[in-house]
Amino acid sequence: MLTELGITLPVLAAPMAGGPTTPELVIAAGRIGSMGFLAGGYKTPRALADQIATVRAEGVPFGVNLFVPNPMPASSEDYLAYRRALEAEADRYDVHLPEVPIEDDDRWAAKIDLLLADPVPVVSFTFGLPDREIISALRSAGSIVVHTVTSAHEAKCAAEAGTQALVVQAPAAGGHSATLTPDQPPRPDIPAPQLIGEVRDATALPLIAAGGISEPPDVTAALRAGAEAVAVGTALLRTRESGASTVHKDAFVSPEFDTTVVTRAFTGRPARALRNHFADRYGPIAPCAYPALHHLTSALRKAATTAGDTRLIHLWAGTGHRHAEVEPAADTLTRLAGHV
């Protein structure tokens, strides 16, 4: 897959939805023989189309990542109980919490239509498995279709659906787990090389390793285990091209945050973040309910970010967050590649 796309640096820029991935970050990766993925999650189709146009104009290889609808509906009882638990935090910022669950599909059909009308080199998916017809249509349009998996079983399912390559996400990854079964999170302690080996035994598809890759030896180990490349997100979050908030970037080096935790507190899906008050207080009582909890907490998290209140912010981070540097993204990617 890398050769087909003209990629010479096997350290790619993973998609980070919600702002950290910018067109500038994707372009910076493409200019040095790597490749980045625009994060389509949470964006309007128009905003995604604009970002695609910006990157395409630079003539670099790139991909687009989408969230596949895989809803975990919230019961009214669970939703209202969680809403009541958050009211004191919301009142502090004069934020109104939605009174009923918001269950949407992130404008899935419109984004698929966009990628079929204006094909991009690579389309990757996470959270759920698209219909075979959608995968087939994207491939016919000229896109390479990639799916993110967290187990050998998921890899087999994706291969049977027609996916052409896999991102194999280890549990050390920051942000949301790509698991197809969010109510049953992946094994918490499996390292990336072991997971790559298990997936390699299950399928012959090209593999891209992700999760817990923060130093050059991590890259080497993943490639030796059978990956064709690696994808990094946390390592790029403090780079100059990252669109992450200043408070998020600063938290990576703050002595206040020395541990990460997987929590449903912020969105209702398991996601790894720096351990803070919100994760500790609300993680144990958060229902498995996505996207309802994402919409429930969204305005509160935005208000807290504006105020610099790290107690309430979703500080997505992988286990190797301390290795993230303030530098150009190109320097991060080449540094991680080492002598590969």
CATH topology of the largest domain: TIM Barrel
| Poorly predicted tracts of residues | none
Derived structural class: alpha/beta
Query: Helical segment tally?
Result: 13
SS elements, strand count: 11
Q: Can you write the helix and strand succession as a string? A: HEHEHEHHEHEHEEHEHEHEEHHH
Shape: globular
Strand order of the largest sheet: 1-9-8-6-5-4-3-2
Highest-level CATH class of the largest domain: Alpha Beta
User: How big a fraction of the residues is strand?
Assistant: 5-15%
Question: Major β-sheet, in short?
Answer: 8 strands, parallel
Fraction of residues in helices?
25-40%
* Span between termini: 17 Å
Mean pLDDT: 96
Specify the CATH homologous superfamily of the largest domain: Aldolase class I
Number of domains: 2
Summarize the structure.
By secondary structure, this protein is α/β, with parallel strands linked by helices.
Can you walk me through this structure?
The chain is α/β, with parallel strands linked by helices and 340 residues long. The chain folds into two domains: 1-69 and 105-240 and 325-340, Aldolase class I (TIM Barrel), CATH 3.20.20.70; 72-104 and 253-316, no CATH class. Helices cover 37% and strands 14% of the residues. The protein contains 13 helices and eleven strands. It has helices spanning 2-5, 23-31, 45-56, 76-92, 108-117, 132-140, 152-160, 192-202, 216-224, 246-251, 277-282, 292-307, 329-337, and strands at 11-13, 36-39, 62-67, 122-126, 144-149, 165-169, 175-176, 207-210, 229-232, 260-263, 271-274. An eight-stranded parallel sheet has the order 1-9-8-6-5-4-3-2. A three-stranded antiparallel sheet has the order 7-11-10, with no helix packed on it. Helix 9 links the parallel strand 8 (207-210) and strand 9. Helix 2 (23-31) runs parallel beside helix 3 (45-56) and helix 4 (76-92) packs parallel to helix 12. The protein is globular and about 55 Å long. The mean pLDDT is 96. Its cofactor is FMN. GO terms for molecular function: oxidoreductase activity.
